[in-house]
Predict the 3D structure of the following.
Amino acid sequence: MIDLEVPRKFSGLIEHARAMADEVFRPISRKYDLAEHTYPAELDIMAALIDGVSRTGESAGASSVGSVASQSAGRSPGARNGANMSSVLSILETCRGDVGLTLSLPRQGLGNAAIAAVANPEQKTRYAGRWAAMAITEPETGSDSGAIRTTATKDGDHYVLNGEKIYVTAGERAELVVVWATLDRSLGKQAIKSFVVERSNPGMTLVRLEHKLGIRASDTAAFVLTDCRVPAEDLLGDPEIRIEGGFGGAMQTFDNTRPLVAAMGLGLTRACLDRTRELLAEAGVEVDWDRPAHVQSAAAARLIQMEADYESAHLLTLRAAWMADNGQPNSMEASMAKAKAGRTCVNVALACVELCGATGYAERELLEKWARDSKILDIFEGTQQIQLLVVARRLLGMSSTQLK
Ligand SMILES: Cc1cc2nc3c(=O)[nH]c(=O)nc-3n(C[C@H](O)[C@H](O)[C@H](O)COP(=O)(O)OP(=O)(O)OC[C@H]3O[C@@H](n4cnc5c(N)ncnc54)[C@H](O)[C@@H]3O)c2cc1C
């Protein structure tokens, strides 16, 4: 049974994250949008604070992506709200401040979530406290992550990686990159493993940083791997190729990360709705929540509709995180949440620019930036279309070869 109230034990965490959004992220949001590729040094202080909070055990830490699966592991039976829920709630708040800055928080990378989802206990200890990016996408392969071409060949007590990786969030700034590579392309998805590669590894060369439409505070890197030697103990999880479920470990990453990206979409949607309501109120448009939408102004009716969309995306996201915390298979629910939240944030951000007219389009406000930032949340960790494909497969009981 799901209780739809936000658990009281997370109220301190939410307050911390909200304060970070309002007092740290918002004031520097425009600065790092304009200064693309400049490292937001202010975040070092935030990372130290988050580490301090985590060490004292006060909470899982605001937006502590890396703690997601590690804290879920070994859970006791019975309903609980754990690290997935706390991460979703805190990320929602920090992304209300700024999505790109949230993605730039040291030691909170998507690679940390991958490590938490797949690593064995010894590896989790070894990589603890280090910042990891995640590299799946290649020039020839994005949505179809099972078709990656980067190879990993065993050579004594090392693997040798060769290939190309593009669009790696935090790829320049992170200390580690979790690289997906195949041990044997002829064996398909089951042969795909993830490897933790030190950024300083001479076999992995950063060749480019992308200039982007939005989330410009976040760096996005491209790498070439040329005879990149990685110690065998840095293959995450099980080194064997198992025909049943070999890809499951790597794909499990998405079950944990998709609700987090949905939460990013919720945060951005909340920011747009709150600021638009303020601006419309200044222009004399007030929403009367006790009266039907059709008897109010068109702008008020639109806001009511968008709040309903926000609420449904919010509930889907909480459900997906709750299921992850309680060890329930959540691939479909994670994709539903990501699809709804991604679509909602793009639609709402553009509608808010429209409702606020020239003010919404000008750089004096952050609405135009949020409209640019929103699109990525409907793309990475699986596009809108891919999420709907996952949902359709689950509903119809079809495999990825039956429904492409
Ligand atoms: C700013 C940014 C940051 C990123 N960060 C990371 C990162 O940290 N790590 C990482 O590995 N990747 C990252 N990515 C890559 C991202 O995950 C991919 O862009 C995404 O998975 C889509 O892949 P693609 O761009 O190759 O598009 P394609 O897969 O070529 O898809 C193109 C279009 O076709 C649609 N499509 C594809 N297949 C189907 C289908 N079967 N049915 C219906 N429609 C379909 C897609 O939805 C999309 O609209 C990032 C991308 C960006 C832009």
Notes: Residues 110, 134-137, 142-143, 167-169, 212, 220, 376, 379-380, 383, 385-386, 389, 404 surround flavin-adenine dinucleotide (CB under 6 Å). The first strand starts at residue 132 and ends at 135. The two ends are 34 Å apart (CA to CA). Strands lie at 132-135, 151-155, 158-169, 176-182, 192-198, 204-209, 220-231.
